[in-house]
Amino acid sequence: MTAVDRDLKITPADASVAGVAPLSGSRTNMPDWFWQIWSVVAAFGTYFCMYAFRKPFTAATFEDAMVAGVTLKTALVISQTLGYMLSKFIGIKVIAEMPPHRRAGGILLLVMIAQFALVLFGLLPSPWNVGSLFLNGLSLGMVFGLVLGFLEGRRSTEALTAGLCTSFILADGMTKSVGAWLLIQKVPEPWMPSVAGLLFVVPLVIFVAMLAMIPPPNQRDIAERAARVTMSSNDRWQLYFRYMFGLTLLVILYLLISILRSIRSDFAPELWLDLLGKKAVPAIYSQSEYCVALGVLLANGSAVFVRDSRRAFFISLGICGAGLGLILVALLCRQAAMIDGFTLMVLIGLGLYLPYVAVHTKVFERFLAMTRERGNLGFLMYVADSIGYLGVVGVLLGKNLLNIEGSFLNFFLLVCWIATGLALCCLAGSWRYFSDRVREPKLVVAAEVTR
Questions:
Q1: Where do transmembrane segments lie in this chain (predicted)?
Q2: Distance from CA of residue 200 to its chain's centroid?
Q3: Staple 293 to which of 34, 169, 176, 247, CB 3.0 to 4.6 Å?
Q4: pLDDT digit string, tens, across residues 337-377
Q5: Of 158-172, 294-308, 369-383, which has the strongest mean pLDDT?
Q6: 3-state SS of the chain: helix, strand, coil percent to 5?
Q7: How far apart are alpha carbons 392 and 97 in whole angstroms?
């Protein structure tokens, strides 16, 4: 028996550890397509609602308020991002070791802590309320990994996670629109974030309950995508060090894209002000993200049709390259005055979200399937996310320490040029590494598993 053949054999131990559903008849007799739709709706809804506890405060400008020499808005963004970053580092252990039956309760507990932090934000005077957003970020940073655990290791994982990732593209703009609308309704800036969160408590509970009902992967899923199991500390670092060079380049690429995404997201009001010459209306945050979400969903979800995991892995790297190229095209068109501000924001958004979502939906998922390594997607994602948010904090602090002159838009465009160029270098290096390291496709025909 070859090594590949051994990988394809699903043992009772694998099934038990991975929480595998029986091949025929899972929790119910519902067909696969039903659970695929159910899973997308549940994951999309859960993470969309989570954003209502995280992002609405960025719709406020907190004009003329200063904290330690920086604007209150910048201090709030940095405080929340610091908490979010720390949560990602903690999540490397917590998400990798989390038993499946505790995920749903963990999501609800974390979001309720985040809402408590938003209430503190309204109660405490400035600048003391800055610390409450640190607690908010600390609690929300592990929600994505818990939701992702319900979707990974399935034949339809790319489509499911593409739907999940569409949620944070749309939610980013729409929850800002909710925040901006609440401000128009005369809700005070300090209380606007907690009021926005309250609007989404009931939908959140419903969607999390739906997540908890999703059956685990069945034997066909395990045969094609490898068993996804909890990981000890030794398991985690043995996996990473076996592919250290290639994975590190992917983490750096993700770091650079995360920096661009965070600046574009957290300082959207300032960017739109520079682009339009006036304060943006609430609807523009949502309108700009509709086009981005549609393009990203189609590009990243389509990989589910590629059965060969090695080929799908390199297709995902190609999608990353296409997104980075699109950013360069947008920057060049802006310099030549060929596009307006709205088109610039959409093109850069599409260009950065293509690789950002590809990492979430395909790159690490297909890496595990391609190599047949025993582990889980949450570990790899949280290694990348922790480093990504560390870079985001560095850029936010550096902008103020360096006292960059000119408009915020000029600063953003400069970061786009630098980050995109470096990301392309990392992408080329990782492509070469994995093409040399993993040469044999490990394709499994699911029908053969049932014989």
A1: 33-53, 65-86, 107-124, 130-151, 163-184, 196-218, 239-263, 283-306, 313-332, 338-359, 379-397, 409-434
A2: 20
A3: 169
A4: 898 888 888 899 899 989 988 898 889 989 998 998 888 88
A5: 369-383
A6: 75, 0, 25
A7: 26
Residue type, 45: G
- CA–CA–CA angle 274, 275, 278 (5° rounding): 65
CATH architecture under which domain 30-449 falls:
Up-down Bundle (1.20)
Read off φ and ψ for residue 338, nearest 5 degrees.
Answer: -95, -15
Q: With beta carbons less than 8 A apart as the criterion, state whether 396 and 75 touch.
A: no
Distance between CA atoms of residues 445 and 55, nearest Å? 43
Task: Report the distance separating Cα 216 and Cα 21, nearest Å.
Answer: 5
Bridge partners of residue 5, in order along the sequence: none
Kind and range of the H or E run holding 216: none
What are the tokens at 152? 């990974």
CA dihedral 176, 179, 183, 187 (to 10 degrees): -170
Model confidence band, residue 43 (pLDDT cutoffs 50, 70, 90): very high
At 222, list the tokens: 């395990």
Residue with the two structure tokens 């989570």: 50
CA distances 218 to 13, 156, 164, 344, 447, Å, are 14, 12, 21, 44, 13
What are the structure tokens assigned to 100, written together? 């499946």
Query: Which of 247, 261, 414, 285 has its CA nearest to residue 351?
Result: 261
Residue 49 burial (10 A CB sphere; 0-12, 13-18, 19+):
buried
Q: List C-alpha distances in Å: 311 to 188, 370, 451.
A: 52, 9, 26
| Span of 37-46, 241-250, 342-351 with lowest mean pLDDT | 342-351
Helices assigned H by DSSP within 359-450: 364-371, 377-401, 408-437, 446-449
Question: Which parts of 217-308 fold into alpha helices (H)?
Answer: 219-225, 233-242, 244-266, 268-276, 283-301
Nearest C-alpha neighbor of 296 from the set 449, 170, 189:
170
User: Residue 278 and residue 76: Cα distance in Å, rounded?
Assistant: 23
State the Cα–Cα distance between residues 304 and 309, nearest whole angstrom.
Answer: 10
What are residue 55's phi and psi, to 5 degrees?
A: -105, -25
| pTM confidence score | 0.78
Residue 4 has a CB neighbour count (10 Å cut-off) of 13
The model's pLDDT over 438-447, given as tens digits with 9 standing for 90+, comes to 766 444 443 3
> Could you tell me if 78 and 397 are in contact, meaning their C-beta atoms sit under 8 angstroms apart?
yes
